[in-house]
C-alpha cells in the first residue's frame, strides 16, 4: 500500500497558524520535573522486559496504571479519569487518561509501554529505556504538569485531552490499532494525535516524521517546536508505519510523530539488552516534554480544529 493511499481517508483538518497559549505554556514548563521522569524511568526500565505477552509486560502495565492513577487522584482535579483498555491478544493492557474539556473533541498524546528483545522476544532482557520508556514517562510527567493548569482544572479548555500508553506496539501496533479502530467505529472525534516513541537519545534536532502522518498537523507541530523548544527539528521518514501514529492515520485521524532525531540517526541499541537508562539524555527528554506541553495546550484551547 502506498503512503498516499494509506492516508487518503484521514479527515480534513485545519490547525492554528498562530500560537496563543504562550503565557500558559511558559508557566507550565518550569513545573515539568525532569527528575521525576528519571525516577520513574529508573523503575520502568528495571523490569526484565515489558514484552506484551510476558508476565513482566503485565506487571509493568499494572505499575504504570497505578502511577498514572495516583497522579490523577492526588491532583484533586474533578472529572479526570484513568482506565484500562484491555486486549484479547495479551494480559498487557493499554492505558487511557482523560482530562475533559468543554467538548468531546479530543487531542491525544501517545506513547507505547512495551519493549522487545528482537533476538528472543518472549524471554530476552529488554529494559527499553529509550524505546519507549522515555516517551511513556515523558507523557506521564506532561499529564501531571498539565493537571496544575487552572483553566484545565476548571474544564475551560475547548477540547478534551487524552494520554495513551499502548500495549503491544512492538508486535505490530496492536494496542493502538485496537484503540483507534474502536474510536473510529464509535465515531469518536479525535482532532489530532502526537506520538512520542523514543525521545531520549540525541541532543540534536528532533525528527519530524513526514510519512504516514498529516502534513497540516506536522506544520503546526513544527511551529510548536520552534516556539517552545531549543532543539530545532529536521524532517525525516521512517519508510513504513513505524509507530502508533500509523494506527491513528489508518483510522482516519490526523497524526504527527516526533522522534528523538532523524530516523537514520536514532538509538542503535533499541530492541537489545543495551537499551539502558545510562544512555538516556534527559536534557533532550526535557525538550520533548516542552513540546508536549505546548502542543497540547495550544490545541486544547483551539475551538476551530
TrEMBL record:
Positions of the Peptidase M28 domain: 95-294
Coiled coil segments of this chain: none
GO function terms (MF aspect): aminopeptidase activity; metal ion binding; metalloexopeptidase activity
Its EC number(s): 3.4.-.-
SUPFAM superfamilies for the chain: Zn-dependent exopeptidases
Residues passing through the membrane, by range: none
Cofactor(s) this protein requires: Zn(2+)
The protein's enzyme class: hydrolase
Highest taxon above the source species: Eukaryota
Record-level GO BP terms: proteolysis
Record flagged with keyword Zinc: yes
Keywords, in A-Z order: Aminopeptidase, Disulfide bond, Hydrolase, Metal-binding, Protease, Signal, Zinc
Keyword Hydrolase listed: yes
Record-linked Pfam families: Peptidase_M28
Family: Belongs to the peptidase M28 family. M28E subfamily.
Annotated PANTHER family: AMINOPEPTIDASE YDR415C-RELATED, METALLOPEPTIDASE M28 FAMILY MEMBER
Complex formation: Monomer.
The protein's name in its UniProt record: Peptide hydrolase
Record organism: Pseudovirgaria hyperparasitica
Amino acid at each position: 500500500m502506498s503512503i498516499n493511499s494509506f492516508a487518503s481517508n484521514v479527515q480534513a483538518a485545519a490547525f492554528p497558524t498562530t500560537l496563543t497559549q504562550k503565557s500558559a505554556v511558559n508557566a507550565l514548563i518550569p513545573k515539568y520535573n525532569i527528575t521525576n521522569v528519571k525516577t520513574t524511568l529508573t523503575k520502568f526500565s528495571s523490569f526484565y522486559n515489558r514484552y506484551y505477552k510476558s508476565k513482566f509486560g503485565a506487571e509493568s502495565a499494572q505499575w504504570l496504571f497505578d502511577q498514572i492513577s495516583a497522579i490523577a487522584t492526588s491532583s484533586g482535579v474533578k472529572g479526570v479519569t484513568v482506565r484500562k483498555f484491555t486486549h484479547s491478544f495479551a494480559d498487557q493492557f493499554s492505558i487511557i487518561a482523560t482530562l475533559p474539556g468543554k467538548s468531546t473533541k479530543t487531542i491525544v498524546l501517545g506513547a507505547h509501554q512495551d519493549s522487545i528483545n528482537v533476538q528472543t522476544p518472549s524471554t530476552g532482557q529488554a529494559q527499553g529505556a529509550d524505546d519507549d520508556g522515555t516517551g511513556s514517562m515523558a507523557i506521564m510527567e506532561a499529564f501531571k504538569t498539565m493537571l496544575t493548569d487552572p483553566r484545565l482544572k476548571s474544564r475551560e479548555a475547548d477540547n478534551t485531552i487524552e494520554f495513551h500508553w499502548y500495549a503491544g506496539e512492538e508486535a505490530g501496533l496492536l494496542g493502538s490499532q485496537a484503540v483507534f479502530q474502536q474510536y473510529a467505529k464509535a465515531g469518536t472525534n479525535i482532532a489530532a494525535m502526537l506520538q512520542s516513541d523514543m525521545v531520549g537519545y540525541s541532543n540534536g534536532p528532533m525528527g519530524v516524521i513526514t510519512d504516514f502522518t498529516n502534513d497540516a498537523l506536522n506544520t503546526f507541530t513544527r511551529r510548536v517546536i520552534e516556539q517552545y523548544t531549543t532543539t530545532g527539528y529536521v524532517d525525516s521518514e521512517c519508510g513504513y508505519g513505524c509507530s502508533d501514529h500509523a494506527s491513528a492515520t489508518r483510522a482516519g485521524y490526523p497524526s504527527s510523530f516526533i522522534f528523538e532525531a532523524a530516523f537514520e540517526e536514532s538509538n542503535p541499541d533499541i530492541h537489545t539488552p543495551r537499551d539502558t537508562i545510562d544512555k538516556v539524555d534527559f536534557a533532550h527528554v526535557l525538550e520533548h516534554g516542552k513540546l508536549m506541553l505546548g502542543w497540547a495546550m495550544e490545541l486544547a484551547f483551539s475551538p476551530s480544529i
